[in-house]
Design goal:
Order of helices and strands: HHHH
Largest sheet: none
Distance between the termini: 155 Å
Strand content: under 5%
Number of strands: 0
Helix content: over 70%
Radius of gyration: 61 Å
Number of helices: 4
Structural class: mainly alpha
């Protein structure tokens, strides 16, 4: 057994530490000596330079790990994302040039087709009217012809040439009115 002498103020601090830790002063002293022996720390070094150096070493290792991950993962991912963005831009450009042009051409063709169909509809209506008018003309002509034939058959041998000429003139005038 050995004894150590120290001032009363230090003893008061030492006793507070021992009470706080729930140990005897002898146990705390032995543990303090073991701590400084194993950690190779200088009790005068309150800033704990060894701890700082250990933290800096770990910090450098983390930074190295992050940089290696950046080169292995982040840079290739960014490169692929740039490539995907470029291909998307090309797709959008082609869509805007080709498909929108095709859509406008299709719309123009539909308008032209609608105009042609309107023209065809008008032409068909005109043809239909002309056919109706032709049919009416045929009916009227047949009516005039039948009237002429009946009048002609009513003539006998004794009918004068003047009456025949009048019938021809009336028939011609009726036909000219058609």
């Amino acid at each position: 057994m050995r004894s150590v002498r120290y001032p009363v103020t230090v003893d008061q601090k030492f006793e507070k530490i021992a009470l706080k830790l729930g140990r005897t002063k002898r146990q705390v002293f032995i543990q303090m000596v073991d701590y400084f022996y194993k950690s190779k720390k200088d009790p005068l070094d309150l800033n704990d330079e060894l701890l700082k150096n250990a933290l800096m070493k770990n910090h450098q290792q983390y930074i190295g790990f992050i940089k290696s991950q950046e080169n292995m993962l982040l840079v290739p991912i960014k490169t692929e994302m740039d490539r995907v963005s470029e291909s998307q831009a090309k797709i959008i450009e082609r869509f805007n040039t080709q498909i929108l042009k095709a859509n406008s051409d299709l719309l123009n063709n539909q308008h032209a087709l609608a105009q042609k169909l309107t023209g065809i509809d008008a032409l068909m209506e005109t043809i239909s009217k002309n056919q109706k008018r032709k049919e009416n003309l045929k009916k009227q002509f047949l009516f005039i012809l039948e009237g002429y034939i009946k009048s002609r058959e009513a003539f006998g041998m004794m009918t004068s040439g003047r009456e025949k000429d009048e019938l021809i003139a009336v028939t011609r005038s009726q036909i000219s009115l058609l």
